[in-house]
Amino acid sequence: MIDHIVLFRLKAEAADADVQALVDALHAVSRVAPGVQSYRLERDPRLRDVNDDLALVARFDDRGAFEAYPSHPDPSRSSPNTRLCFGGEALRAVRVRVVDLQRRVI
Length: 106
Hints:
By secondary structure, the protein is an alpha+beta fold. The protein has helices at 16-32, 63-68, 80-87, and strands spanning 2-10, 36-43, 54-60, 93-102. It has a 4-stranded antiparallel beta sheet.
């Protein structure tokens, strides 16, 4: 099992409609990706200024399912995620942090 965690910090001028378009596009990717056990994408409620703006947590069956998931934050890829995060100047992410965790059964 693989947990994929992505934190997005967006430019301050990102319009709410553009952020919602990003959320919708990421949810669309999760619906077509095989092997996704769970998928959660939430906007930060801005309780602290140091927090990022969006958090995505996806759980995959295995490494193969993870590798088939088309949302790696690499601007050379052409998924909806990268087009919105890296293609539009207004919504361009200031920072994208990624952590992948593999669960091991002991």
